[in-house]
Amino acid sequence: MSKGVHTGFDEQQYPYINKGLAGIIAFSTTKSSIDGQKGELIYSGYNIDTLAEHATFEEVCFLLWNDRLPNAQELEDLKNSLIEHRTLPGPVLEYIKSTDKGAEPMAVLRTAVSMLADSDETKGKFDESLFMDQAIAITAKIPTIIAAFDRSRKGKNIVEPLNEGSTAFNFLYMLNGEKPGEQAEKTMNLCLVLHAEHGMNASTFTCRTICATESDIYSGVTGAIGALKGPLHGGANTAVMNTLLDMEKEHGTDADPVELTRQRLESKEKIMGFGHRVYKVFDPRAYHLQKMSKALSEETGHERLYEWSMAILNTMKEEKDIDPNVDFFSATVYYSIGIEPDLFTCIFTMSRVSGWTGHYMEQAANNRLIRPRALYVGEKNLDWVPVEDR
After folding, report:
1. What's the angle, vertex CA 312, arms to CA 308 and CA 316, rounded to 5?
2. What global pTM score does this model have?
C-alpha cells in the first residue's frame, strides 16, 4: 500500500506508489546493464573492466551508438568526424565570451548546447537519418564549450581545437593551452570511458522522455544536462572535492577526517560520494578511479587528499556499512590533473552525452510517448467562495 500520508484519502483504496519510480521497468535497452548485487556494469555486451583496460572513448561512443565495436576504418572515420565538428558556431562562441564570468559552468554548458540547435540546418527536424550526425556534432562540441568557458572566465585566450588527436587529448590541450602528456591523456580517456553510460538514471530518463515527444536531439541533451546538474546526480563529485578542500581550509594539514566524518554523521549531514540507488556493493567504476587517484596523488603531490579520502571511506564503511560511488574518487582524479572542482560535472557531461544520444536514438527507433500517471490525493468538488469572502 502507499506509504504517502494525506488526511484526505484512504490508503487502502490505492496501489503502492513507487517513489522515484524505484523498481519500475519502463524500457528495454541494449545500451547498458547494471547488476547492483554483483557490482557489474555492462556497456552493450562489454564489461566495464574490459573497456577500462582496452577501450578509447571514441570506441565507446561507437559502441553505444551502434551496439558493436568499430573496425579500424569505422573507428578512423568516427575520429575524423569528431575532429571535424569540434569548432563552435560563432553565436555560441560569442555567448561564452560575453556571459557572466562567475556563472555556474553547468548552466553555461546547458545554454550553449541548446544554442547549437540554431546552427543545425535541419532546424530540429525529427528524422532518424540525422541523429547520428547530430550525436557526433554535439559530442565533439561539448569539450570545446567547457574549455572555452573556463579560459574565458579566467581572462585567458580561448584555444582553438586541434585537427588531430583524441577527444581526451584535445580537451586537455584546449583547457590548459598546451599538449598533454601520455599519462594525462590516458587518465582523461579512462574517466570518459567510465562515465559514458549507466542505465536508466535521471538524466538518461529525461533525455528519453524528451525524445518520446519527438522533440529534437538538442532538446534531449539540454534536458539531460539540466537533470545531471543536480547534486543528487552528477553534481556530487564537486561536493566531494569541496568537502576535502574545506577540511583542509578549516582545519589545516592536521585535520582528522575520521573524527570530522563522524561529527557530520552525528549531525545527520549527508556525506556526498557514498551510496547508490542501484549498487549494493562497491561501484565497479570506483575501483578503477581509486587506483588512478592513488597513483595521481603520488605523482602530483596530493597524497594527503587521497589519504583523507581513504580515511573517510573506511569510516563510512565502519559506521554505516556503505560503499563509495563513482563520484567519490573521480573528484580527486580530476583535481589532481588540474581541473577546477566546479567543472567536474561538465566533464561528466562530456562523457555521458555518448550514452544520452545512444538512448535517444534507441527511443526514437521504437517510440511511444512516455505518460505515467500520478495519484491525486487532494480535495475534490470544493464549493466556490467569492474573493471578498475568502
Report:
1. 170
2. 0.89
